[in-house]
Amino acid sequence: MRADPHPEGPPSRRRRNHGLWLGPLVTIGGAISYFTVFVRWPALRDFPWVNLPWVLAGVALSGAAARRGFARPARFRGRIAGSLSLLVSLAVGALFCLYVFVFSAMLPAPTPVTLALAEAPDVALPDQHGRLVSLRALRGQRVVLTFYRGYW
Amino acid sequence: MAISVDPPEKSRELTEAYGWEFPLLSDPSCSAIDAFGVRHPQGGIFGDVARPATFILDRQGRIVWRDLTENWRVRTRPERLFEALASIP
Fold it and tell me: pLDDT digits over B41-61, tens only?
């Protein structure tokens, strides 16, 4: 049995199905722009008000394209293209949601040491110029001390 | 001031890139991190780091305010910090 040379339909019958490529593009754009653009606004960083709908829109586009591809494969470029588009969008969308809602919340619970601390321990560490800075020496001033992961 | 496990050279790169003037302290052995109880085991690619945490000390070195975020994307808003600072004589 000969393989069908045009599984996506003969060229004359094919219609455009932009969602096939637009879906993944929108999804990926939505995920990337969260980290490159929208994290600068705290309100949009704390909860991805812009990027979550954006990513979901991309998944929906791929979904619609896949639906057309399955319903009328000869006209809308086939089931494989539709499935691939949806797979890519779902994967990117899932990773984005996992990062935002699960991974970034994987912090240790506040420890008994922290909760019981009333006075700042005396610490002396080198600063970025190699000079030793001691917390005790800063008495008399108010101090804002922030711990961060590093590796930036 | 800020504390992390980064070495001083890395911290200097950061301050030069962003134009910061406050001290960035280097704590690779996590001594200060442990003293404050904010170690995050295996939180970094190469080992332990500090979890995000902010403390305000008054002029006598007492801890009068702290913020331990539950999500590392969500950090202390500057307005809240200034409000807290303003209430400390």
Answer: 988 888 899 999 999 999 999
Least Cα separation, residue B65 to chain A (angstroms): 9
pLDDT of A17 reads 86
Query: How do beta strands B2-4 and A143-147 pair?
Result: parallel
User: Cβ–Cβ of B49/A107 closer than 8 Å?
Assistant: no
Domain contains A101: yes
Question: Which among B10, B11, B31 has CB closest to A123?
Answer: B31
Residue A68 falls inside a structural domain: yes
Residue among A46, A133, A147 minimizing CB distance to B52: A147
Domain that holds residue A26: 11-105
**Based on the number of CB atoms within 10 Å of its own CB, is A85 exposed (0-12), middle (13-18) or buried (19 or more)?**
buried
Measured CA angle at A8 (ends A6, A12), to 5 deg: 75
Residue B10 — pLDDT band, cuts 50, 70, 90? very high
* Structural domains in chain A (count): 1
Whether A42 shows a pLDDT value over 80: the answer reads: yes
* CATH H-level, domain B2-86: superfamily: Glutaredoxin (3.40.30.10)
Question: Average pLDDT, whole number, for chain A?
Answer: 91
Is the minimum CB–CB distance between A150 and chain B shorter than 8 Å? yes
